[in-house]
Amino acid sequence: MFRDLIEVKNNVRIVARERGKKVRSLCREGHNIWTNLGRQYLAEVVSPVAGYSAHYNDSPLRVIRYLGLGIGGDSQMPGVDTTFPLLAAHYPGRNIFNDTDLTVQTLERPVKVSGSAGTGIADGIWMSGVTAPPTFGGTPVTKVEFDTLFDYPDLQLGGAYPSVPLSEIAMILSSEEPSKTSEEVYDYGNPPSYIASTRQKLVAYNTFDPISKTVSVALEVYWELQF
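User: That's the sequence. What structure does it adopt?
Assistant: Structure tokens below.
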């Protein structure tokens, strides 16, 4: 018996621009994984509740809404914590997550897009929203592209972090809260992972060679899913 297997193919492109001009050395392209959480989501999003009034397990309704960036992952450069001690103090953790491990649930070392630098009562926005609706392609339609912009001031937090060595990215559902305090994302008393239980969960994950994000650099992210 033959079975029609629908495979979700994935591709992540990051286009870096410095003062408006594309910088090829800072651009990245790779393939993400759908984590176990993401695979569960895909199974549930096509399944109805009794009465066919909603997606299964959709309270609140869950759609792809955010992209988040981090400085973790096994593609990060050695010695990053000594090169960027302030980032290491505010965004602690290891650099061991990889984009072949389906059990990954969060970014390893997420960074704030905007807000206050530091710990304590420092809060902020940890993800950037994708354009809605996304871009569809193919005849018939078999692919969808989610895109977002991390603008020039993003991640620098008013100059507190002059350079942020990004090396991981995540796709995150609308059911996650983008605004959190540092302590809701990082458990500073829980080494070596420092992952707080309230950290935002992801459904897809990718690591890449570090990109030095400064106030002169903006990042356009294009995340394509093809069925």
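The chain has a mean pLDDT of 94.
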